[in-house]
C-alpha cells in the first residue's frame, strides 16, 4: 500500500537552524508544496527540549552546524525518542563523512543549502513523510500480528529448507516445553527437514497435516496436530506450520477404541457362553424327553397287559381307572414325541433338494387314508403344484400336520372338504391347504403357530398344541414362511411359501 500525502494535510515541522533567513527560506520553499504547513523554529536547547516533550511535529529539518549542539546529535536525540519521525539535514557545512555517518544513524535525506540544490527540499520532505507513514503502518501491522501470535493458543513456526527453526510464537515454546527459540532450535524434535522434503514433492498447494506424538523437553509426551505448508518469498521457500495440542481428543479416541475392543470381546464371550448354554439345554431337553419315553412305554405296556389279563376280575370303576392310565400315558408319549420333533428341528442340519409337491402331497394323503376314510372327507388336489427346494422329511411332517388339522377341526356333522392348490411365483411356490372347518378368529391367528397354543379343550378336539409350531419352525428352517387366512365358522386357508427350483 503506498501512502500519499494529501494537499490539505497539516504538516508540522521543527526547523533547527540558527540562521533566521535560512529558516524563512525553508518555510517559503515548503509552503509552496504544503499550504497547511506549521513550522516551529528552534533556536536553542531549551526550545528543542520543549518541542521534543510536546511531540507535536511530523518531521525535523536540521542544519549541521548549530551554536548549542550539532545536527548529528539532534538527529540522534530525535530518532532515540521517535524512531519513525523523519529527519532531513539541510546544511552548507557538512562533509561527505558527516553525511555518511548521519545516514547510518537513520537520517532520511541530506540536502545542501546552495541555491542549485535546495529546490530538492520539498521533494525530500514529501518522500520522507510518505516513507515514514508506510513504516509506521507496517510497524502497526507487525505489532498486531505479534500480539495475535502471542495470544494464540496454537503454536506457530517457520523453518528453512534445512529444517532449521527460524521463528516461533510463545505457544509453540510452551507446548513443547522450551524456554527459548534457541533451545527449540538445538533440540529440534520436529524433524522439519524431512517434512520440508515431503512437501516439496507435493503438487501445489504444498500443504499437509499430520498427527504425531512428540516428546517435550521435560521428557513427557504430547499428541499434536501439525499443519504445514510451503510458502515462497522472493527466491526463498520456507516451511510455515501450526502445531496444536490434541492430547485430550487422542485420549478420548484411544478410550473409545479400547472400549470397542473390550465390548467386542465381551460380546463374543457372552455369545459363546449363550451358545454353549443353549446347546447344553437342548441336549438336556432332548435326553430328558428321550429318557421319559422309556418309563412311559413301560406304563403303557403294563397297563395294557393288566387290562388284557384282569379285565374279567375288575369292576367297571377300576377298569375305567385303568383305561384312563392307558390314555394318559399314550397322550404323554405323543406329547413327548412332538416335543422331540420340534426341538430336533433346531438341532439338525436341513439339507434341501428339489421336490415335486404333487407326489409329496399324494404320499401324505395316502398315509392319512384311515382318517380321511373315517371322516369320509373329500380331498381336492388342483394341479399343478410345482416343485420346491425343501427337506423331504420335514416337508412331509409339515403337510401331515396341516392335513390332519384340516380333517380334525371340522364339526362332526359336516363332511370335510379339503382343497390343496398352489400359486407358482417367481423364485417360490405358495401352497394352500383350505378346509371348510370351524375357522379361527383373527385375534388368534398369529398365536396358533406358538408351542402349546390351543384354542379348544382336548375333550372337543384332541391334540398337543405343537403341530403348527412344527409347521412354522420347519418351514422357516427351509427358508420359507407360513400364514393363515380365516374367519370363525367360515373354514381356514393355511399357506406355506417355499423357495422353488431356479429356472436357468
Ligand atoms: P393341535 O392341533 O395339536 O391342537 P396345532 O398346533 O396343530 O395343535 O394347532 C393349534 C391350534 O390351532 C389348534 O388347537 C386349533 O385351535 C387351531 N387350529 C389349527 N388348525 C386349524 C384349522 N384347520 N381350523 C381351525 N383351527 C385350527
UniProtKB/TrEMBL annotation:
<dbReference type="GO" id="GO:0000156">
    <property type="term" value="F:phosphorelay response regulator activity"/>
</dbReference>
<dbReference type="Pfam" id="PF02518">
    <property type="entry name" value="HATPase_c"/>
</dbReference>
<dbReference type="Pfam" id="PF00072">
    <property type="entry name" value="Response_reg"/>
</dbReference>
<keyword id="KW-0597">Phosphoprotein</keyword>
<dbReference type="InterPro" id="IPR036890">
    <property type="entry name" value="HATPase_C_sf"/>
</dbReference>
<dbReference type="InterPro" id="IPR011006">
    <property type="entry name" value="CheY-like_superfamily"/>
</dbReference>
<dbReference type="InterPro" id="IPR001789">
    <property type="entry name" value="Sig_transdc_resp-reg_receiver"/>
</dbReference>
<dbReference type="InterPro" id="IPR004358">
    <property type="entry name" value="Sig_transdc_His_kin-like_C"/>
</dbReference>
<dbReference type="GO" id="GO:0000155">
    <property type="term" value="F:phosphorelay sensor kinase activity"/>
</dbReference>
<dbReference type="InterPro" id="IPR035965">
    <property type="entry name" value="PAS-like_dom_sf"/>
</dbReference>
<dbReference type="Pfam" id="PF00512">
    <property type="entry name" value="HisKA"/>
</dbReference>
<dbReference type="InterPro" id="IPR005467">
    <property type="entry name" value="His_kinase_dom"/>
</dbReference>
<dbReference type="InterPro" id="IPR000014">
    <property type="entry name" value="PAS"/>
</dbReference>
<dbReference type="GO" id="GO:0016020">
    <property type="term" value="C:membrane"/>
</dbReference>
<feature type="domain" description="PAC">
    <location>
        <begin position="208"/>
        <end position="258"/>
    </location>
</feature>
<keyword id="KW-0418">Kinase</keyword>
<dbReference type="InterPro" id="IPR036097">
    <property type="entry name" value="HisK_dim/P_sf"/>
</dbReference>
<dbReference type="GO" id="GO:0030295">
    <property type="term" value="F:protein kinase activator activity"/>
</dbReference>
<dbReference type="GO" id="GO:0007234">
    <property type="term" value="P:osmosensory signaling via phosphorelay pathway"/>
</dbReference>
<feature type="modified residue" description="4-aspartylphosphate">
    <location>
        <position position="63"/>
    </location>
</feature>
<feature type="domain" description="Response regulatory">
    <location>
        <begin position="12"/>
        <end position="128"/>
    </location>
</feature>
<keyword id="KW-0808">Transferase</keyword>
<keyword id="KW-0902">Two-component regulatory system</keyword>
<dbReference type="Pfam" id="PF13188">
    <property type="entry name" value="PAS_8"/>
</dbReference>
<protein>
    <recommendedName>
        <fullName>histidine kinase</fullName>
        <ecNumber>2.7.13.3</ecNumber>
    </recommendedName>
</protein>
<dbReference type="InterPro" id="IPR050351">
    <property type="entry name" value="BphY/WalK/GraS-like"/>
</dbReference>
<dbReference type="InterPro" id="IPR000700">
    <property type="entry name" value="PAS-assoc_C"/>
</dbReference>
<dbReference type="InterPro" id="IPR003661">
    <property type="entry name" value="HisK_dim/P_dom"/>
</dbReference>
<keyword id="KW-0472">Membrane</keyword>
<feature type="domain" description="Histidine kinase">
    <location>
        <begin position="287"/>
        <end position="502"/>
    </location>
</feature>
<dbReference type="InterPro" id="IPR003594">
    <property type="entry name" value="HATPase_dom"/>
</dbReference>
<feature type="domain" description="PAS">
    <location>
        <begin position="141"/>
        <end position="178"/>
    </location>
</feature>
Amino acid at each position: 500500500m503506498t501512502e500519499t500525502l494529501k494537499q490539505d494535510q497539516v504538516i508540522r515541522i521543527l526547523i533547527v537552524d540558527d540562521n533566521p533567513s535560512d529558516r524563512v527560506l525553508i518555510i517559503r520553499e515548503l509552503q509552496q508544496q504544503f499550504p497547511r504547513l506549521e513550522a516551529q523554529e528552534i533556536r536553542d536547547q531549551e526550545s528543542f527540549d520543549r518541542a521534543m516533550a510536546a511531540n507535536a511535529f511530523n518531521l525535523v529539518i536540521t542544519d549541521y552546524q548549530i551554536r548549542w549542539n550539532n545536527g548529528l546529535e539532534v538527529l540522534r536525540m530525535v530518532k532515540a525518542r521517535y524512531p519513525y519521525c523523519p529527519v532531513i539535514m539541510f546544511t552548507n557545512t557538512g562533509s561527505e563523512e558527516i553525511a555518511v555517518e548521519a545516514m547510518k544513524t537513520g537520517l532520511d535525506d541530506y540536502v545542501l543549502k546552495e541555491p542549485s540544490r535546495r529546490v530538492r527540499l520539498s521533494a525530500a520532505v514529501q518522500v520522507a513523510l510518505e516513507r515514514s507513514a508506510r513504516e509506521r503502518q507496517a510497524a502497526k501491522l507487525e505489532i498486531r500480528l505479534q500480539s495475535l501470535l502471542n495470544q494464540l493458543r496454537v503454536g506457530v513456526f517457520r523453518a528453512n529448507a534445512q529444517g532449521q527453526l527460524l521463528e516461533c510464537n510463545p505457544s509453540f515454546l510452551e507446548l513443547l516445553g522450551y524456554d527459548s527459540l534457541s533451545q527449540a532450535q538445538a533440540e529440534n524434535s520436529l524433524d522439519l527437514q524431512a517434512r520440508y522434503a515431503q512437501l516439496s514433492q507435493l503438487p501445489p498447494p504444498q500443504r499437509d497435516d499430520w498427527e504425531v506424538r512428540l516428546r517435550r523437553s521435560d521428557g513427557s509426551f504430547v499428541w499434536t496436530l501439525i499443519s504445514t505448508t510451503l510458502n515462497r518469498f522472493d527466491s526463498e521457500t520456507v516451511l510455515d506450520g501450526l502445531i496444536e495440542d490434541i492430547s485430550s481428543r487422542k485420549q478420548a479416541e484411544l478410550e473409545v477404541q479400547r472400549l470397542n475392543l473390550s465390548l467386542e470381546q465381551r460380546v463374543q464371550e457372552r455369545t459363546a457362553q449363550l451358545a454353549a448354554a443353549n446347546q447344553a439345554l437342548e441336549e438336556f431337553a432332548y435326553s430328558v424327553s428321550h429318557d421319559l419315553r422309556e418309563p412311559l412305554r413301560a406304563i403303557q405296556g403294563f397297563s395294557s397287559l393288566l387290562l388284557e389279563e384282569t379285565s374279567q376280575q375288575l369292576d367297571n370303576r377300576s377298569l375305567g381307572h385303568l383305561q384312563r392310565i392307558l390314555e394318559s400315558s399314550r397322550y404323554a408319549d405323543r406329547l413327548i414325541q412332538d416335543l422331540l420333533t420340534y426341538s430336533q428341528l433346531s438341532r439338525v442340519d436341513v439339507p434341501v433338494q428339489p421336490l415335486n409337491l404333487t407326489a409329496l402331497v399324494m404320499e401324505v394323503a395316502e398315509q392319512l387314508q384311515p382318517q380321511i376314510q373315517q371322516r369320509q372327507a373329500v380331498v381336492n388336489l388342483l394341479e399343478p403344484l410345482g416343485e420346491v427346494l425343501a427337506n423331504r422329511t420335514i416337508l412331509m411332517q409339515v403337510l401331515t400336520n396341516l392335513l390332519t388339522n384340516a380333517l380334525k377341526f371340522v364339526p362332526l356333522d359336516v363332511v370335510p372338504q379339503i382343497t390343496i392348490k398352489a400359486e407358482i411365483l417367481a423364485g417360490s411356490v405358495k401352497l394352500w391347504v383350505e378346509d371348510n372347518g370351524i375357522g379361527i378368529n383373527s385375534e388368534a391367528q398369529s398365536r396358533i403357530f406358538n408351542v402349546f397354543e390351543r384354542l379348544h379343550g382336548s375333550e372337543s378336539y384332541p391334540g398337543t398344541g405343537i403341530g403348527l409350531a412344527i409347521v412354522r419352525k420347519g418351514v422357516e428352517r427351509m427358508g420359507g414362511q407360513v400364514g393363515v387366512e380365516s374367519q370363525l365358522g367360515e373354514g381356514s386357508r393355511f399357506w406355506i411359501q417355499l423357495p422353488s427350483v431356479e429356472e436357468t
